[in-house]
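In response to a reviewer's request, we include the raw inputs and outputs for one of the modeled complexes. The two entities were modeled together in a single run.
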Amino acid sequence: MMLVLIILVCCLPLTGSLMSAISERGRAIGIATAVGTTGALVAAIALAAHVLSDGSYQIANGIIYVDPLSALFLVVIAIVVFLAGIGSVSYLCVDEERQELSRFQVRIYGIFFGLFAALMLASLGTGNLGLLWVLVEASTLASAVLVALEGRAASLEAAWKYIIISSFGVTIALVGTLFLYYSASNLNLSPDQRLTWPELFANAGSLQAASLQLAFLLAVIGYGTKVGLAPMHTWLPDAHAEAPSPVSAMLSAALLNTGMYAIIRFYAVAGVKLGSYANGVLLVFGFASIAIGAMFMVRRRNFKRLFAYSSVEHMGIIAVGLGFGGALGVYGALLHTLNHAIGKCLLFLTSGEIKLRFRTTLVNDIAGLLRPAPVVSIALLLGSLAILGSPPFGLFLSEFTIVRAGFAGQASFGFLLLVLLVIAFIAFAHTVARMAVGGERGKFSPAGTPVLRFVGGLPLVLGLFVLFVLGIWIPRDLNDLILRAIATIR
Amino acid sequence: MITLSEGVLLDLLSVAILLLTFACLGSKLFDRYVAYYALQSIILSAAIALVAHHLGAWDLWALAVLTFLIKGIGIPVIARHYLIIRLELKRDVAISTGISTSLIIGAVLTAFAYFAINPSTLPSGLLATSPVPLSNAVVLLGGLCMVVRRNTVAQLIGWLIVENGVFLGAITLVATFPFIVEAGIFLDLVAGVLIMLTFVSGLAHRLATTDASELRELRE
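The model returned the following structure tokens for the whole complex.
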């Protein structure tokens, strides 16, 4: 039963790719993508429920492996894929109708969107760290094609920058994986087991400390390139700004989290043997990312770049939460992963809806969104408030937990985090408020038929609703899942 | 009579790989880049075959053959045909530092790789120990190639050299990597090269240049 569910989660997003093989109509491909990703979400939730009741699942020497941590991330990524899958419908239909995308481009979008989603989900379903690397690198390649999709010189440039920096970074993570494998060489394990996370974690105390230390550093730098931790974040704003908006949503809310998941696996093994060393490394990179993200958010002219820098900041917050450590810090980090994923996905999908109406991503060309597009405008305002961590949305709760974990440890770190969060708040809110309210400006053109506008608004409303619910009430099963996930890595 | 042990042979092959990286760093001609890379990959496949012979592992033999066919012949031929000849690339003018400067930096990086991983601290049981720091030096030098060269084709070659360095380290340090993982890494490499080739020719088509320093639309 578990195996079937895992296969369903990983393969259902491919329905869009299959549809692209037989059809080249944007609507058919979009609907197939939306249906497939919805199925994947249902399967992921069912899988998480099974993991909650039956515990971890593993076959074939950990090549397929699901524990509460991967179940949690599977649900997070499946939610993002689901929202972005619905968002793809209006993107494909409107741009096809306006002939901004050729049939070939629509087809490429369908194929690689499904592949990208499937590869990310599959990378969460393996316990073999080598295979995890292979799947993460493959998802980089699939997403690079999507970044370049619109074929402008700028998007090709962004895609080139993305693929060359990420591939180089991920290659460093491979060296880290090699050293982790090597650190287990004096243990009585078969070659397969020396790469299998549960085996490594169980024997973490007897790994060789020097090579484990090197392995952890290289993995944080390597996978940190994918996560967008500063100073390895330079590809991120370009790729997020130039990709089609549903893809930006997937990059920011799913791909970055997949990288963070890989770091957490290394962090768990390193934490057992090296203790606070691992926490220190994550704190340094985390604070650097929050500072860089907050500073570059000041006076951005392109709102997709603004959102991208906000992702750098939030990945930093998650790293800091892990770095603070303790049950409280890790709880905050995992909860923040879920909240940030939904919030940022929502904001990038909103940016897509704005772009469909104004055909620009420059802040100065857009003002007074409220009257012509009320739903989009409200989603922009509330989504921004949510991502900035104001109550009553989920991110308030998780950021609060992380700050509290900071004060529980070393108060100066908690204080520093608070100051940086305030800077980020002011920079972000200043830009977004002008877009939503204020005098009307810019050339507005309605996006598609009323049905399409409804479909486009659907993920925005759904995302806002979930964020609101998570802000006032954490379901018992979710709480259990997070607690179990913490138990598996501590 | 002097007999060469397998360990010494592996050391020599690794040194040859490092020297070819230096040759690439010190060259300005595109067809030289590709030729040095091809030669480096063929030597790498010989090194893998040596380890395979030593351990008697069939999957390493398969890896050696794959390396020879794809990295030694396939990628260089495709790169030469689709990039060098079609885009009429001859002399690389987009190098940000002088050749001698980058060679000196390369020498410093190699020394750094040796100090970072002192062969004497590696435990016994490895076929040879010096390939480990040498492979790290190749990784760093490949990165240097990517940094000092602004032409996208040259950056692609730099990344491929980094990949070769990682493989050299992998076969000496952890020869018994599970085959499914090795095959996956290889598949990623091939897919990556194909996608990058498409991008490079797309960029050339769009901008009439493959010089990454001309990529300045995204400055903000």
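As requested, we also summarize the result in words. Residues 26 and 99 of chain B are 6 Å apart (CA to CA). Chain B is about 75% helix and 0% strand.
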